[in-house]
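Example record

The entry below shows one chain as it appears in the dataset: sequence first, then structure tokens.
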Amino acid sequence: MKRQHAYPDSVREYVSVLVRLSELEATHSREQLTESDAYAALEERLEDVRPAATEAIDRLSDADAEFLRSYVADLERDSRLV
């Protein structure tokens, strides 16, 4: 994501939250995550920023939008709890 600083704030935040969720899922058990208030807050934040990020991605160039949609889909697919 070399050009990520050029992306709208909503897109950067959405990707950041997805990456953080992914990192937590890689290092904690399902039980730990489902009992974590911090993890639940991140999940809520993801849902809050998703609509604005999706709209912003739709307004990007075709190449950037395609890259981000693929990247986000990979993160979501690899998620154990999403």
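Notes for this example: The radius of gyration is 13 Å. Residues 7 and 60 are 8 Å apart (CA to CA).
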